[in-house]
């Protein structure tokens, strides 16, 4: 089982396609417990597709490679089983669910995970206590808890709502897919604060972003550049600044020069 | 959108002349005579009638029930009119022609002695469904038709109920008993909301109705408990032509529950019930239905044809009638619980969830007829279609010239699961008073794979995800149901939608 030396996530040579189009072409990534990895890359490079592979989205077909999570094969698990094992995705485009309140979703989700771990379900009172505390952390009005999930929310409210769900579900591996897009600087700080509050030695983050800005607030241990379906460059947090300064064209040139594998 | 000419007509067809014509119709005269020749007196001992419908059938049923002459005449009048009527075709439902001569119109209420002796003898699939619905053990036996002494509990509960109600002057009994014990009330109100000639299926019911329920709440009495057909002794086998009459006298309140979530065994394919409600000054009637009759199999074979006429008259000032229905069963549902808002300041409400899965078809909705001043109505309809199900909302809001300051709010939402099902909305609006105020909202949405995936990602299994979305969709209707009924209704939707996605 998991010990300190086992990486939390090992993505090995993943090839994946969607809608008949090959998108990921041999992607490798290793995330150890407690680490924060940033994944940057131009639009359409396959960042969200990687998130879909990891969470088991039906539209993405994995045509090669393997993923180990906590040392176990991940790809055979149903999406809800992965979630119950602590894998969380803050969606780039959060989905609206009319008629189902935030509270209901959070309670059902949290209890599904507790049952999975062999714990008691939370009663309504304990649950509300937890949720309200987390909402306060994100400076969210408690009224939002009684509203239908993302229904009629502004872009920024939706992103904040994703982070609220992350705080309540306390995942082991959280993937944030462009959570920063659509947020103004104040909201960005609040969201980063929420993420940082959750950082822990056994919890890891994969932060997908288009801009370096977010990484000033959520400081990553590693930065990877995804282009053409592969990680083409990895480095320390300074890589993000370099990218910001030189633009992705710089990467494209580097990739063009790289030998094909 | 709203074409008035297609509207199901609510007005009683203009009457007397039609029956004259019937009487002179030689063909029917012939038929009637022949029936007379057959006679029926000698056959009165038999327990059931062979298939066939004639005046003689009607006389037989009436005699079997030892009904007074006036009621026999009432039935015959309905029958003679029915002979001149055509089955309606305006509803968006398709089914093979019904041969009304191939149906048997009378079978003595079966004693439970013929039923299974214990739960061990009951179809395991039926028991599995009861289990999923969370129906208590004692009640499962009753529903599966196990002999009465095995279900002692529910019988004694019913007896206790009757005692309590009696002290308040509330009458709650079978229709036949009401005809015997309270003929003046029955005679005064029977057919006063749904006339014999109202429509094809109602006329048929008037002619051959088997039994049903009667409720009278005296002036100023608030019925202290929900009245449920389920707890009425003799409720078993009221059959395919059920008749219900509820009268709420001035200032009284009653909440009535029809049906139950458990699938009931029923051999009859055609059901044509009539329900009449009368609310006098300041009276309130809340009528809740959960209908879960056999929907047919996954391929659309079998299943109940449910052609129901339900109508309430808010006769008194400030009276209120509220219909809430959860329709998940039957192969075909044809049903428009309606309100005639006669009394000034009276209120009509219709809350509906209709679910069609596999090959089920539902054409359901309501009619709100505003006659009195300041009358208000609310319509909330939620249609869920899955599989190859077809779900139609058909509703009429009519505001007569006399209805000053009348208001209506309508909301019709459809939820689709998959690509092979259908949802249709036909609102008919007719306004003859300029002070009227109407609001209509409609929406159609689809349970998307992206919604299900989102909920999966939060740890919910696909069926739980679907149920969460569906229950959210129905919330406004469920909250109108009495508490335990609402919980059961949620479970029922879950069972009815099992396997609809994924
Ligand atoms: N279901 C799909 N069908 C066809 N093309 C897809 C599908 N999903 C993604 N793509 C394409 O794959 C590429 C990568 O998409 P995505 O992973 O969303 O990129 P990113 O998140 O990096 O912007 C894009 O060109 C996108 O249009
Ligand atoms: Mg993306």
Describe the structure.
The complex is a heterodimer of chains A (261) and B (502). Chain A has helices spanning 47-55, 79-84, 102-116, 124-137, 155-169, 185-198, 238-246, 248-257, and strands at residues 9-18, 21-31, 36-40, 60-69, 72-73, 87-90, 97-101, 148-149, 173-177, 204-209, 222-227, 230-235. Chain A is of the alpha/beta class and 261 residues long. In chain A, strands 6-9-10-3-11-12 form a 6-stranded mixed sheet, with helices on both faces. Chain A has a 4-stranded antiparallel sheet with strand order 2-1-4-5. The longest helix of chain A is centred in the middle third of the chain and has 15 residues, at 102-116. The model of chain B is unreliable at 1-44, 147-157 and 231-238 (pLDDT under 50). Chain B is globular. Chain B is built from 13 helices and 19 strands. In chain B, the strands form 2 sheets. In chain B, strands 1, 2, 4, 6, 7, 9, 11, 12, 14, 16 and 18 form an 11-stranded mixed sheet that branches. In chain B, strands 3-5-8-10-13-15-17-19 form an 8-stranded parallel sheet, with helices on one face. Chain B is 28% helix and 27% strand. Chain B has 502 residues and is of the alpha/beta class. Classes of the chains: A alpha/beta (261), B alpha/beta (502).
């Amino acid at each position: 089982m998991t010990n300190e030396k086992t990486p939390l996530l090992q993505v090995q040579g993943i090839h994946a396609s969607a809608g008949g189009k090959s998108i990921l072409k041999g992607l490798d990534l290793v995330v150890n417990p407690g680490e924060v990895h940033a994944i940057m890359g131009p639009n359409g490079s396959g960042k969200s597709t990687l998130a879909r592979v990891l969470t088991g989205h039906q539209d993405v077909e994995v045509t090669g490679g393997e993923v180990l999570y906590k040392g176990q094969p991940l790809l055979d698990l149903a999406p809800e089983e992965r979630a119950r094992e602590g894998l969380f995705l803050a969606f780039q485009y959060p989905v609206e669910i009319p008629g189902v309140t935030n509270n209901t979703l959070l309670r059902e989700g949290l209890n599904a995970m507790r049952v999975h771990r062999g714990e008691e379900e939370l009663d309504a009172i304990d649950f509300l206590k937890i949720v309200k505390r987390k909402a306060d952390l994100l400076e969210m009005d408690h009224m939002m808890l009684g509203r239908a999930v993302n229904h009629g929310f502004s872009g920024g409210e939706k992103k904040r709502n994703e982070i609220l769900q992350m705080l309540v579900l306390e995942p082991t591996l959280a993937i944030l897919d462009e959570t920063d897009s659509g947020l103004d600087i104040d909201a960005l700080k609040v969201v980063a604060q929420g993420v940082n509050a959750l950082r822990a030695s056994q919890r890891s983050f994969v932060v997908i972003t288009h801009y370096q800005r977010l990484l000033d607030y959520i400081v990553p241990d590693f930065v990877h550049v995804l282009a053409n379906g592969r990680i083409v460059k990895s480095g320390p947090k300074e890589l993000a600044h370099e990218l910001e300064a030189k633009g992705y064209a710089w990467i494209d040139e580097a990739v063009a020069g790289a030998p094909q594998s | 959108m709203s074409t008035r000419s297609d509207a199901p007509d609510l007005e009683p067809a203009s009457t007397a002349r039609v029956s004259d014509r019937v009487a002179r119709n030689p063909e029917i005269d012939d038929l009637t005579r022949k029936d007379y020749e057959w006679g029926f007196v000698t056959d009165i001992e038999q327990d059931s009638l062979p298939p066939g419908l004639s005046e003689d059938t009607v006389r037989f049923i009436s005699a079997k029930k030892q009904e007074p002459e006036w009621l026999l005449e009432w039935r015959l009048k309905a029958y003679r009119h029915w002979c001149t009527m055509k089955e309606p075709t305006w509803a968006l439902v398709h089914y093979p022609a019904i041969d009304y001569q191939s149906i048997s119109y009378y079978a003595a209420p079966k004693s439970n002695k013929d039923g299974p002796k214990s739960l061990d003898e009951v179809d395991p699939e039926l028991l599995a469904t009861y289990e999923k619905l969370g129906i208590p053990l004692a009640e499962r036996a009753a529903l599966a038709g196990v002999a009465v002494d095995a279900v002692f509990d529910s019988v004694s509960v019913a007896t206790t109920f009757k005692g309590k109600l009696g002290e308040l002057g509330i009458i709650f009994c079978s229709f036949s008993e009401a005809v015997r014990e309270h003929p003046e009330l029955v005679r005064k109100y029977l057919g006063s909301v749904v006339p014999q000639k109202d429509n094809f299926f109602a006329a048929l019911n008037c002619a051959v109705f088997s039994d049903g329920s009667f409720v009278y709440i005296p002036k100023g009495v608030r019925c202290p408990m929900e009245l449920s057909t389920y707890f009425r002794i003799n409720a078993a086998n009221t059959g395919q032509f059920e008749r219900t009459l509820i009268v709420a006298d001035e200032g009284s309140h009653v909440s009535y529950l029809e049906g139950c979530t458990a699938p009931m065994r029923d051999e009859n394919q055609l059901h044509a019930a009539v329900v009449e409600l009368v609310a006098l000054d300041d009276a309130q009637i809340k009528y809740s239905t959960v209908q879960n009759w056999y929907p047919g199999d996954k391929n659309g074979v079998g299943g109940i044809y449910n052609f129901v006429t339900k109508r309430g008259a808010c006769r008194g000032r400030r009276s209120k009638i509220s219909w809430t229905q959860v329709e998940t069963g039957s192969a075909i549902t044809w049903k428009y619980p309606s309100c005639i808002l006669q009394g000034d300041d009276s209120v009509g409400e219709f809350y509906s969830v209709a679910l069609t899965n596999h090959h089920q078809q539902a054409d359901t909705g309501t009619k709100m007829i505003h006659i009195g001043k300041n009358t208000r109505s609310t319509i909330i309809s939620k249609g869920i279609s899955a599989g190859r199900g077809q779900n139609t909302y058909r509703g009429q809001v009519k505001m007569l010239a006399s209805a000053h300051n009348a208001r209506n709010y309508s909301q019709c939402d459809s939820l689709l699961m998959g690509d092979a099902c259908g949802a249709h909305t036909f609102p008919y609006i007719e306004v003859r008073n300029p002070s009227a105020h109407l609001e209509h909202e409609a929406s159609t949405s689809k349970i998307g794979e992206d919604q299900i995936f989102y909920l999966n990602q939060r740890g919910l299994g696909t069926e739980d995800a679907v149920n969460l979305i569906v229950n959210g969709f129905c919330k406004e209707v469920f909250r109108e149901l009495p508490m335990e009924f609402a919980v059961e209704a949620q479970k029922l939707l879950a069972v009815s939608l099992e396997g609809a996605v994924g």
